[in-house]
Every structure is written in C-alpha cells, then in structure tokens.
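Ticket #325: bound-state structure for flavin-adenine dinucleotide.
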Amino acid sequence: MASGSSSVTSASGSDAVPRAIPARPKRADPMHRDARIDDLLAEGPTLSLEFFPPKTDRGVANLLETIDALEDLDPDFVSVTYGAGGSTRDRTRDLVVTANRDRNFPVMAHLTCVGHTRAELRELLEDYAASGVRNILALAGDPPADGSPAEGDFQYATELIELIREVGDFSVGVAAHPETHPRSPDRASDREHLAAKLEVADFAITQFFFSASDYFDMVDELDALGVSTPIVPGVIPVTNPASVARFADMANAARPAELWARYEAVAEDPEALMATAIEAAASLATELLEGGAPGVHLYALNRAEAPLGVGARLGWRVRQRLDVS
Ligand code: FAD
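RESOLUTION: The complex was predicted; output attached.
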C-alpha cells in the first residue's frame, strides 16, 4: 500500500504521459468493500479495474502485487472474470472472496451461466452471499467453441439475473456490446434484448471499443427504448496490439485504421508502445467522461503500468468525486 506520492514515469519520456499520482486519502468509510456498485454509480463517476484469475499460485501472488500497486488509484471497485463453463470456478471464487475480504474496495464476481445447472449456480451464489460479496456481473457466457449445443439449465444472462435476485441482495451488472453482440442477427434485436436485460439489471459494463461514438450511439438507442440504466464503458489500453486485435475481431469491435497504424508503428518499441497505449486509452476515457459516461472500467490485463498511467491522466476526475484537495 502506498503511503505517499507514487511516480508514474512516461516510458518514452514524453510529456504526453503524466508524471505522478498525488497521494490519495483513505476512504472515510472503512467498510467500503461492502458497497454496492449501483450505489457507487449513483454518487458519481467511478473508476474500476478488471482482472482475470491466474492459473498458478505464483500468478496469484503476482496479481496481488499488481493489485497493491493499483491501490494508488483507489479504484471504486474491481472485478474478476470467470472462465466459460466454470473452467476457473474455484480460482475466480477464491480470488473474489479473498480480495473482497482483505481490500478496501468491493470485488465483483463475473459469473457465466451457459453450461451450468441451476443448482451449481445457486451453490456458488449462496457461497458469495455468505462470504460478503455483494456485486455480481451476470453473463451468459459463450457456447462450446466446437459448435456443439450448450448444456445446462440457462441460455441467456436474463435467466441468471432472476436466479441471482432469488438468492441474495446483490447489485447485479450485465454486459453490453456497443457495436452489438457477435451472435446478434441484427442491430434492432440486439438493442431489444439488451434493453430487456438492462430493465432487470442495476448497471452494465461494456465490451471494449475504440470510438466514443459507438458508446454514445448505443446509449441513445437505449434511451429511445426508454432505458436509462447506467452503462460503464470498458476501455482497454492496447499494450499488446496483436492479442487485442484477435479479441477485437472475435468481439465485433472495429479497429480504426489510423489508431492501429499508430500501434503498428511502435509495435517493436515496448516503451513507445506503452506510452501510446496509455495516451489512446486516456483520451478515449476522457471523451467518454466528458460526454456523460457514468465511469470507466479499465481492462487491466493483470498489469499495473498501463492502468496507473491512464488513471493518472484521469486522476483529477477521480479526486474530484472523492473531494480530495
Ligand atoms: P446475453 O445478454 O444473454 O446475450 C447473448 C446473445 O443472445 C445476444 O446476441 C443477445 O442479443 C441474444 N439474446 C439475449 N436474450 C435473448 C432472447 N431472449 N432471445 C433471443 N436472443 C437473445 N465471458 C466469460 O466467459 N467470462 C467472463 O468473465 C466474461 N466477462 C465479460 C465482461 C464484460 C464486461 C463483457 C462485455 C463480456 C464478458 N464475457 C465474459 C463475454 C460474454 O460472456 C459473451 O459475450 C457471451 O457471448 C454473451 O454474454 P451476455 O451476457 O452478453 O449474453
């Protein structure tokens, strides 16, 4: 845990990247970990971070060090992904419960329902409720990659939300895809299903995207359908262009040619790439917050440097919400 100012130095030495994160006071509320994300969103823009559960004990130890480093950002909440079909069930559960217990911010558990029985999901949700976890991201998950039909009792995220509400008093988030979900046959049906899901959820977090207009268009389309549930944009610092490109293509996220040319130009220079990734993610996040987004969810990819750089660029906003002088 940092007790004073911590330096974030531009990898390239460029002035475009901020130099320092001022020390931030501890939250007044020592039980911040018990907060519901819908309540946090009602207070003002949030900054949140997403991690995935490492496969090894060494990986978990590294991630906990990363989370220590990221405490300088004083995130409003963090989240931990869940492997499709339950492949990371225990690792996600253990990380969520431990971090939620030991850190002064709420940890949200992602949970996918495809491939699970109702009883399996109920058991995990009861465990989360008993362990003090108050925030769940309700997801369908993907059907098996080999094209075989998904087994289990659930097909869509809305069915999981119903079960979550039965089990406990959770704040329930869902996924939103600004450029539409890859399995949606058309935009209209995508928006109708998303609107129906948002009606029974407390908030949403988006898939990453690279043009702010994709986010604002989605918000406008949902508004026209009478839905105003807060939707937090997900922003990814592109520190590994090849890997993000693969995910983007699978997730239906368009990659603007000009932006990708910038990444490709520095792909062989790690320091310049990090500086470019931070600058682009911070610019997008700034545009989103200035346009009224209720927060920013950073895909941290279990590393500290890029989120610290982006957070430093947004620091004045976060400090403003926390009333830090
Ligand atoms: P749904 O909202 O159920 O929608 C899936 C598709 O079905 C959409 O095309 C929708 O339009 C359609 N649909 C919905 N309801 C109906 C209906 N009643 N009739 C017909 N069609 C319908 N995956 C993981 O495995 N683990 C994770 O931790 C994880 N975290 C994620 C976090 C975020 C922020 C995001 C954006 C995605 C995440 N995913 C994760 C990926 C997600 O599981 C996949 O995108 C999955 O394919 C769909 O999940 P969903 O919850 O959006 O599904």
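RESOLUTION NOTES: The pocket of flavin-adenine dinucleotide is lined by residues 81-82, 84, 110, 112, 139-142, 156-157, 175, 181, 183-184, 190, 193, 197, 205-207, 234 (CB under 6 Å).
TICKET STATUS: resolved
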